[in-house]
Design goal:
The chain has a single domain, classed as Ribosomal Protein S5, domain 2. It is of the alpha+beta class. It is globular, with a radius of gyration of 20 Å. It is built from nine helices and 16 strands. Helix content is about 30%, strand content about 25%. The relative contact order is 0.17.
Length: about 400
């Protein structure tokens, strides 16, 4: 699918979501549909503490970007983010399921997008043109992993791959932290109502941290990276269970955006209001030391506690019978010996991490006994490399380039 200019004939709609946080917190979050590149929906660098840059022209150049998908076991506090304010902190794990983008800067002013997620990709191309004053154009081709709106980060991975590729062909006007902020403040996804429109998305920055650096990452509010730990020789078993909340996760025809907003802005926020202190204590006193020591079992013990607290509990409960479907898988994985088990993002994707091949086989045998379709099972490993760039036939390990440390 090629997009030069999209014809928008539908009338834009506004979605109002009642927000409930603490006992005195009653406001509305308003989600407005907008067109890719609509200027009043572009957030500029100076609005989030990044110095403005200018790149009016760039030579023709082509790169291919590969980023790993992410699992997002927990947010720390959903009261710290909204569609206009990324943050909230959390955990991320990069996995060996990839998204790929080919980005080319051109002498022509047009933006041409092929492949998948054309609305998101077109918007970010327009964002970079606008904030940099770039007069030329792009050709972008993107392919995601096709497991959409199930908690495997297809939207944030799309944004991450596009941002890295665009920044690269323009000569890296922004460093990694600045890129993460551009992505977070301009985060979006396809509208659940208007097929030609986008709406603002919720963003913690965890997906970009995991996709760029690989391994397991811990982020805090305002999208700041706190710690990154490699998880060598760690197997990942992923299951997308058949739960009542699913519609059509394989084709992406239905987006979960509206129902996710209602969940996050209501019960998720309220439970985090009650328990975010306990969650943060577990992360600081149990999870972080385990990450520093490379103690996978210790990480799993801390994450297991987080699974029953705050917004993660709300996310698990939405998938039927107060979370019974999800908790049954997580508890079974732990009993079978998995060091780590949890649900990713708003789910229903559940996962197990182990360094023991026999544990992996026991989990797979268990899934067969539960008659889980093979199409819903992914067996891979933790990706400790992160983003990769290929240019002129040579591949570079993106995270080890010194400029990323700024």
């Amino acid at each position: 699918m090629a997009v030069n200019k999209v014809s928008f004939l539908e009338q834009k709609q506004t979605i109002e979501i009642g927000v409930i946080g603490g006992p005195f917190d009653r406001i509305n979050t308003v989600l407005q549909e907008f067109e890719p590149g609509q200027k009043d929906f572009i957030i500029y660098p100076e609005q989030f503490g990044v110095a403005p840059r200018t790149v009016a022209e760039a030579p023709e150049r082509e790169v291919e970007i590969t980023v790993p998908a992410r699992l997002h076991p927990s947010v720390l506090d959903m009261n710290r983010f909204n569609v206009s304010r990324p943050g909230g902190g959390g955990l991320g794990i990069a996995i060996g399921v990839n998204l790929k983008a080919r980005v080319r800067s051109t002498n022509r002013p047009e933006i041409v997008v092929k492949g998948e997620r054309p609305l998101i990709v077109t918007h970010f191309a327009e964002v970079f043109k606008e904030i940099l004053g770039y007069k030329q154009g792009f050709e972008i081709e993107l392919y995601d992993h096709k497991r959409r709106h199930v908690g495997m980060g297809s939207s944030t991975g799309t944004m991450c791959a596009a941002c890295i590729g665009i920044n690269e062909v323009l000569g890296r006007p922004f460093n990694n932290r600045e890129l993460r902020r551009i992505l977070g403040y301009n985060a979006c996804e396809e509208s659940p109502r208007g097929t030609n429109y986008l709406i603002r998305g919720f963003e913690t920055g965890i997906g970009a941290m995991a996709s760029i650096y690989g391994g397991m990452v811990l982020g805090t509010d305002d999208m700041e990276l706190v710690y990154r730990a490699a998880l060598p020789d760690t197997r990942v078993i992923i299951v997308i269970p058949d739960v009542p909340s699913l519609k059509d996760e394989f084709t992406g025809m239905d987006t979960a955006a509206e129902s996710e907003v209602e969940l996050l802005m209501r019960r998720g926020r309220y439970l985090d209001y009650l328990q975010c202190g306990t969650k943060s204590q577990i992360v600081l006193l149990d999870l972080l030391p385990a990450m520093v020591k490379g103690d996978l079992k210790g990480m799993g013990n801390a994450m297991f506690d987080l699974t029953f607290l705050g917004s993660k509990r709300a996310e698990c409960e939405q998938h039927g019978i107060w979370g019974t479907h999800i908790y049954n898988f997580i508890g079974s994985f732990r009993e079978l010996g998995a060091e780590v088990a949890g649900m990713s993002s708003v789910g229903p994707t559940v996962f197990a991490l182990t360094r023991d091949g026999q544990v992996q086989q026991r989990i797979l045998d268990f899934l067969v006994s539960r008659k889980v379709a093979s199409s819903r099972i992914i067996v891979t490993e933790v990706d400790n490399t992160g983003a990769r760039i290929e240019e002129n036939g040579s591949e570079r390990d993106y995270q080890r380039e010194g400029w990323l440390q700024s």
